[in-house]
Amino acid sequence: QQQVKQSPQSLIVQKGGISIINCAYENTAFDYFPWYQQFPGKGPALLIAIRPDVSEKKEGRFTISFNKSAKQFSLHIMDSQPGDSATYFCAASWTDKLIFGTGTRLQVFP
Amino acid sequence: GAGVSQSPSNKVTEKGKDVELRCDPISGHTALYWYRQSLGQGLEFLIYFQGNSAPDKSGLPSDRFSAERTGGSVSTLTIQRTQQEDSAVYLCASSNRQVDTQYFGPGTRLTVL
Questions:
Q1: A49, A96, A102: residue with CB nearest B48
Q2: Mind listing the pLDDT tens digit for each residue in B24-65?
Q3: How many CB pairs under 8 A join A and B?
């Protein structure tokens, strides 16, 4: 019940395309859903986050869509760029800890 | 300002040796977390410190793992009698309060031969 399931494991997108990464959870007590971006050799960095009282949050080319009834949330990267190539982790908070998904390796080709 | 720093960046040790990994959180951050990231895997929670409260050790995989945080700032993760399966990147993160943005350090890559 503490797991956050993330898919796909890897994703290849052409420059300018839309990248979509999906996550699902079971624990309805989760109340904070961030996405982290990690480049090789670096620690993860917060990209965008959402709370369950809204269904969508957009920051530049990055959008989180949140479906509370389905217990799913997704990250959309519009106009994907080669510089977006990284590993993306979804997460959900329960009490004072973050539970991370297993990550999606995104490769954007020119 | 300075971010979260970790040392060493890389550590190679022999099976059975003890290792200490250090984390310097962002100044003023009350919460500090340790995670383990195995090759190609997600982040596995290990331990969490919040202010002066007792740490949440629920993620420590065995009693060979321990951590302390001195003076509410610097933290040390100790792994005793290292095993090959301990090889991973150990990440530290800090935040200003509970369930807020966690700022990660660059990690320490531990290799146990």
A1: A96
A2: 999 989 899 999 998 767 899 999 998 888 899 999 999 999
A3: 53
